[in-house]
Amino acid sequence: MEPRDLSAHVAYQAGRGIEEVARELGFDPDDLVKLASNENPFGPSPAAVDAIRNGAGNASSYPKASHTDLTARLAERWNVEPAQIWLANGGDGALDYLSRAMLEPGDEVLVPTPGFAYYGMSARYHHGEVSEYSLSKDDGFELTADAVLSAYDNERIVYLTSPHNPSGGMFSLDAVETIADETDERTLVVVDEAYGEYADAPSAIELLDDRDDVAVLRTFSKAFGLAGVRLGYAVVPDDWADAYARVNTPFAASELACRGGLAALTDDEHVEKSVETARWAREYIYENLDAPTWESHGNFVLAEVGNASEVTEAVQERGVILRDCTSFGLPECVRITCGTEDETKRAVRELNEVLSS
Ligand SMILES: *Cc1c(COP(=O)(O)O)cnc(C)c1O
């Protein structure tokens, strides 16, 4: 007995966890700073914590009302119909629903390299194939319509990450429209706005008013601090929004996730603090890190440090966990998540000491 041929599949490499590193290096977990997975340094919104705690007693029921309520709330927020909101188990779950809805076996998706690994993983799970467009470090990972269209070959889905992980750059809405205009009418352009709250720019969701070939991904994992409950969604065009009913896993987001999400949406103060602190941290890193960086619109900064795996390991021995970008195809770069002021200052200090030695 064997599974199907999975030789083209690769496992997702997550940033390293505090517990894992603490055990390996004999640290007290409280002495470690984890800036490796773009998590929110302030944790979840306190309102979400209360809602999840209060909702625990309902964990025996399937999520019905909470799922409907969260969908309605998000539809209101984005000025779309409720059917256009595809709730899922994290943004990653929403990517799976888009794959299920779009891909026939053998269909291709076009993804950025370096870039987020899950686009290709999800396509392969759904018997699709993956081609890549390159973002070049020499051009500052510039995100232009040309960079995408010069590699485009009639793929069924084109993925744009904006702000981009790991570089932090952004596509303009004009570039997104150009890409959607120039690609085949069967090509869906997916704009991944996992870091959208941190960017001082409009969401591509506004393009859905007059197009049926753009979808947008959003998540509660980053600015809302709910990575652990797994809650995200796609916003899709009205024309084919009803496909959700035919592709989703029943009760796509859990009762506790929906309750937490609903509460988090009411807590503007928490999101504002998270976004303001990330802005401060980006500037602090550009100005104080003794290594080249790229301008970021997310809650992280990419830095060129030489041998990233050696540097990551040395910094980790000093209690700071960063993301080695070797698995992104950037063996000379690390990605530093924006922490609290103290965490960010400590990360820069330790990294500078490692770089100077
Ligand atoms: C974090 C992230 C996501 C979504 O993550 P979930 O936790 O599954 O919501 C999607 N795209 C990018 C580029 C990300 O960094």
Describe the 3D structure.
It is a single chain. Helix 3 runs parallel beside helix 9 and helix 10 (268-288) packs parallel to helix 12 (341-356). The N and C termini lie far apart (53 Å). The chain is α/β, with parallel strands linked by helices and 357 residues long. It has 2 domains: 18-44 and 268-356, Alpha-Beta Complex (Aspartate Aminotransferase, domain 1); 46-264, Type I PLP-dependent aspartate aminotransferase-like (Major domain) (Aspartate Aminotransferase, domain 2), CATH 3.40.640. The strands form 2 sheets. The protein has a 7-stranded mixed beta sheet, with helices on both faces. It has helices at 18-25, 46-55, 65-78, 90-102, 118-125, 145-149, 173-182, 244-247, 255-266, 268-288, 308-317, 341-356; strands at 33-35, 85-88, 108-113, 129-134, 157-161, 188-192, 214-219, 232-235, 300-304, 320-324, 333-337. The model has no long low-confidence stretch (mean pLDDT 96). It contains 12 helices and 11 strands. Bound molecules: pyridoxal-5'-phosphate. Pyridoxal-5'-phosphate binds next to helix 4. The modification N6-(pyridoxal phosphate)lysine is found at residue 222. It comes from Haladaptatus litoreus. It catalyses: L-histidinol phosphate + 2-oxoglutarate = 3-(imidazol-4-yl)-2-oxopropyl phosphate + L-glutamate. Its EC number is 2.6.1.9.
